[in-house]
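haha ok so turns out i had the wrong file open the whole time. this is the CORRECT one, sorry everyone. sequence first:
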Amino acid sequence: MGFLVEVDLGVGQASVVVDGGCAGCGRPPSWCEVHHITAWQDGGDTALHNCVMLCRTCHRLQHHSEWEVRIRDGLPELIPPAWIDPQRRPRRKPLLHLAA
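then structure:
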């Protein structure tokens, strides 16, 4: 059973600015959904520190595989399952839109 949660427009717009699209694969914001890192039904709030933009494919991986996502230093990182990287090194998409 799925849940539909409306995301505050400000959080969604802020996620677009910070993430610049999918934090996993780089697809543009128009292809993305806001993912709660800690699910709202588990007490996670709809706030920038708990949300990340993911395309439908990467969003599905977060819910149905061993991939994990976290925010570190204000930026999203995806952690692959051990079968992809035994050391589970976090991956961060280059955020060229934030470069000075």
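The helical segments are 9-19, 56-64.
again sry for the mixup
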